[in-house]
TrEMBL record:
This protein's name: Guanylate kinase
Underlying gene: gmk
The EC number(s) this enzyme carries: 2.7.4.8
Subcellular location: Cytoplasm
Binding site for ATP: G22, P23, S24, G25, V26, G27, K28, S29
GO molecular function annotation: ATP binding; GMP kinase activity
Amino acid sequence: MVASEGSSAQGPLARRLTVLSGPSGVGKSTVVAEIRRSHPRVWLSVSVTTRAPRPGETEGVQYHFVDDAGFDRLVAGGELLEWAEFAGNRYGTPRRPVEERLGRGEPVLLEIDLQGARQIRGTMPEARLVFLAPPSWEELVRRLTGRGTEPPDVIERRLDAARVELAAEKEFDVTLVNTSVRDVCDELLTLMAVQ
Ligand code: 5GP
């Protein structure tokens, strides 16, 4: 029997995996929401989180919302491709749906934080890592404080994390500057070869 080349999601097929990362507040979820709206056929991984839903968020769309014990079970069962603690909550990527799609050669987009991107770099080195950068630090502060969904201490934690995340840009394969959501979506979809 001849092993078919690229049959493992860890192998060459992982080239179809695109990871979108960048500091909190830079607009990653807006970009993902726009892709969901304009290109509903592009499959987006839905992460698991222990964070409480924000107004307007729906179970199974932006996230699967679980409690700490539920998250612990997913970690213990090896069911997450990567996971990280971010600003007091845990976030992770369910492994099976991603591996199934990559196994079929279909494009997959993950929107995750820097720690998660580094884990993917380690386990799936063929993935393409895309860094979404703000037009300026001032603009990032404005977006994070203007969102109005988090209390000041949480915003402060997210700004601290953003300083660290911005310094990691050089670890990524591609940087896209978020001057326009539409432009970033077009560039991302072109990179993913889905348009
Ligand atoms: P938020 O609470 O603003 O939705 O997300 C906070 C941070 O967690 C963002 O940087 C977001 O990209 C990241 N994040 C969302 N899902 C995942 C995931 O599955 N894994 C990791 N490592 N980070 C995630």
